[in-house]
C-alpha cells in the first residue's frame, strides 16, 4: 500500500541526514516509522528477517525520497550469530549511528491460554530477551549518545 507522508519542519531539523537503525522495518509499526523518518530526511538501515519484504519497503521509501539512503539487512535478532553480522555491517558501513529503534517483535494474537507454550516462549525471547543489538551498537560508538 502506498503511503502519503508529509514532512514536519521541526522533525526535519531533528532527523535530516541522521543515520537511524530500525529493526522490524519491513511492515507494521516499524515500516510506518521508517516512512516518517524518510519523509524527514533520515538515512535508514532497515532490519528484518525476510529480504523480500525489506526490499518492498525500501522501494517505497526510494520512490518517496530518491535522494535518501535506505540500506536493508536481513537478520533474525533472535540469533546471536546474525546479530554479530548486523553489528559488523553497521561498523563497516556507517561512520556514526544517531539512533536505534528496537521495534522488531512478534505478536501472537488470541487468548493467552490458547497460545501454545512454544509460541509464548518465542514471543518472550524475541520481544524481551533478544532485542539486544542495542548494547552492541552502542559499544561501536562509545562517545555518542543514541537518541
Ligand atoms: N501491533 C500492536 O498492537 C502491538 C502492541 C504492543 C506491542 N507491539 C510491538 O510493536 C512491535 C511492532 O509490532 P507490529 O504490529 O508492527 O508487528 P508486525 O507487523 O508483525 O511487524 C514485525 C516486524 O518485525 C520483524 N521481525 C519479527 N521477528 C523478527 C526477528 N526475530 N528478527 C528480526 N525482525 C523480526 C518483521 O519482519 P520479518 O517477519 O521479516 O522478520 C516485521 O518487520 C513489536 O515488537 C510488537 O511486539 C505491537
Secondary-structure map with pairings?
Layout: H1 9-15, E1 19-23, H2 28-39, E2 43-48, H3 51-64, E3 70-74, H4 80-93, E4 99-101, H5 117-129, H6 133-140
Parallel strand pairs: 1-2, 1-4, 2-3
Helix pairs in contact: 2-3, 4-6
The structure holds NADP nicotinamide-adenine-dinucleotide phosphate.
Please give a quick description of this structure:
By secondary structure, this protein is an alpha/beta fold. Helices cover 46% and strands 13% of the residues. It has six helices and four strands; from the N terminus they run αβαβαβαβαα.
Total domain count? 1
Name the average pLDDT.
86
The helix content, as a percent range, equals 40-55%
Query: How many alpha or pi helices?
Result: 6
Cα-based radius of gyration, to the nearest Å: 16 Å
Largest sheet, order of strands side by side?
3-2-1-4
Give the class from helix and strand content and strand pairing. Answer: alpha/beta
CATH topology: Rossmann fold
Strand content: 5-15%
Order of helix and strand elements from N to C terminus:
HEHEHEHEHH
β-strand number: 4
Distance between the termini: 30 Å
The CATH C-level name is Alpha Beta
Uncertain ranges? none
Dominant shape: globular
CATH level 4 superfamily: NAD(P)-binding Rossmann-like Domain
What does the largest sheet look like? 4 strands, parallel
Bound molecules: NADP nicotinamide-adenine-dinucleotide phosphate
Oligomeric state = single chain
Do you know the CATH architecture? 3-Layer(aba) Sandwich
